[in-house]
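Hi team,

Below is the intake form for Arm DNA-binding domain-containing protein from Segatella salivae DSM 15606. Please confirm the fields before the structure is written into the shared record.

FORM ID: S-0412
PROTEIN: Arm DNA-binding domain-containing protein
ORGANISM: Segatella salivae DSM 15606
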Amino acid sequence: MTRSTFKTLFYINRSKEKKNGKCPIMGRITIDGEQVQYSTGKETAPELWDSRKGRCKGTGEEIKEINRYLQTKEEQAKGKYQELVWQRGYITAELLKRELMEEDKPKGFLLEE
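The structure came back. Fields below:
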């Protein structure tokens, strides 16, 4: 098994600022120099974003919820990365992104007759 580099970060896309003044929060996964971006589905005002920490600044309930969500996404990415490296020995950023997006899809239910 070869050693690989892995990093996640969150940033806001200021070029996609919405009419309400908020910008979408994006995620980036980097593995061995390969980067993929994805939308987190969350948004925040640019003045509330701490780009060094990759989190929202403040103590409001909405800010806390966004930061908890981002923390959860980061932990999921790390866990899935370790799982896939263990299973396959090698992983790409695109594969990890697809696996994480698959986890977010609602699961089907069996209907009883």
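SUMMARY LINE: The chain has one domain: 6-90.

Thanks, M.
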